[in-house]
Amino acid sequence: LQRNPGETEFHQAVREVLTVLSPVLSKYPQFAERKIIQRICEPERQIIFRVPWMDDNNQVQINRGFRVEFNSALGPYKGGLRFHPSVYLGIIKFLGFEQIFKNALTGMPIGGGKGGSDFDPRGKSHDEIMRFCQSFMTELYRHLGEYTDVPAGDIGVGQREIGFLFGQYKRITNRYESGVLTGKGLDWGGSLVRKEATGYGTVYFVNEMLKARNDSLEGKTCIVSGSGNVAIYAIEKIRQSGGKVIACSDSNGVIVHEAGLDLDLIKQIKEVDRRRISVYADHHKDAKYLANGNIWDLPCQVALPCATQNELDDKSAKKLIDNGCIVVAEGANMPTTPKAMNHFAEAGIAFGPGKAANAGGVATSALEMQQNASRDSWSFRLTEQRLQDIMVDIHKTCHDTAEEFGQPGNYVIGANVAGFLKVARAMVAMGLV
Ligand code: NDP
Hints:
Keywords: ATP-binding, Nucleotide-binding, Oxidoreductase. Pfam families: ELFV_dehydrog, ELFV_dehydrog_N. The chain is an alpha/beta fold and 433 residues long. It folds into two domains: 8-13 and 40-178, Rossmann fold; 197-357, Rossmann fold (3-Layer(aba) Sandwich). The chain has helices at residues 8-18, 22-27, 29-33, 36-40, 89-106, 126-140, 159-173, 194-211, 229-240, 263-272, 280-283, 314-322, 338-347, 354-357, 360-373, 380-404, 411-429, and strands at 45-54, 60-71, 77-83, 112-117, 149-152, 221-224, 244-249, 253-256, 288-291, 302-304, 327-329, 350-352. The strands form two sheets. Strands 9-8-7-6-10-11-12 form a seven-stranded mixed sheet, sandwiched between helices. Strands 1-2-4-3-5 form a five-stranded mixed sheet, with helices on both faces. α9 links the parallel β6 and β7. α6 (126-140) crosses α7 (159-173). It binds NADPH dihydro-nicotinamide-adenine-dinucleotide phosphate. NADPH dihydro-nicotinamide-adenine-dinucleotide phosphate binds at residues 153-156, 198, 225-231, 249-252, 306-308, 311, 331-333, 358, 361.
């Protein structure tokens, strides 16, 4: 705490991992001897930089850029870029810390990192977004490389922004280095299924959790918070798996449509028109928009928080439990507060932590890197099959590790311990670096 003052979200993420590690440290004393905990909590490198850009009124604007290269024991730093006004070092460090263990769980050769800026893309023109991305990359490029650090998207950074960033990297370095960024467009080195991967992966994880309880998504009522990339493709896969999604949201309110959400309309509003989700209610008379509503007040059996950190608090957790919810899986990073997680554990809810449940996105980014390295592009079917296999494996790893450490069914312990073990072993093997 004293070493990293004010970095609240980072403290929360570290606490979640460390509280479950004592049996691991007893079993493997070499980790304590080699000070793995202290080393893993300290980023290998943190870069903070000025991002000056010109707005459409010819006014100079200044933002702050970040890249935290947290851990490269398993491979090049890998993790997204977030553009949102709430971004500061504590947010990037929490995301980068989570990313280390998530990436380890995927079984792919990728280390952990994260970056972003306090730039607010909302209300900015296409050209302003482009100028910002170009300025951001003009500093960041010197720290990147397919063997060094490979960013991707996150909140506020989608394929459009990755395009501007990639274009500027190519221009500055004079290299068509496809593997330096993931989440690229399909015409220029992107991978099929990357767009869908995080949402689809979360639902595959839910399917596995339900299977472990001899149950399935068939006929289940579900709610999905957010209406961005993760939420949209979680909704799509739930529908393909026989579930019904009755609500989604954004930071202003909630759309409720008991008949089941109209996914084509959501895609049109969010991906094509880039408008707010409230517009949905103008198209369906039987849907309601709840301005400032709390999505977790709605009765459901499956709840997927897919928006942002700490969006599901203890009151909301109690409400979900009282309303008969049986499964919660985190499509977003750290959306559930620690108190809410405790409630779910006490109530015996199947709870999939983000490190495991939303790892499909970064896993498919690693598949994109594989395709770039071999100058190949795989079919949708093959890539989706690989994604599904990876999510089934992650579920099994978390499930079996939780059992091994005497906490059957506790995926939080399973994910944190399994992810930590892999990274810690590699760090010990590589000596004091
Ligand atoms: P997007 O920017 O595409 O979407 C984010 C969505 O969340 C928007 O609909 C946004 O609404 C909404 N939102 C933000 N804050 C709140 C809030 N307080 N209450 C309700 N809704 C809110 O981001 P992504 O979908 O890519 O990311 C969502 C989460 O998933 C993040 O935690 C991210 O780190 C995580 N994640 C993403 C991955 C990916 O591949 N994209 C991979 C793994 C994790 P508004 O427009 O009002 O801000």
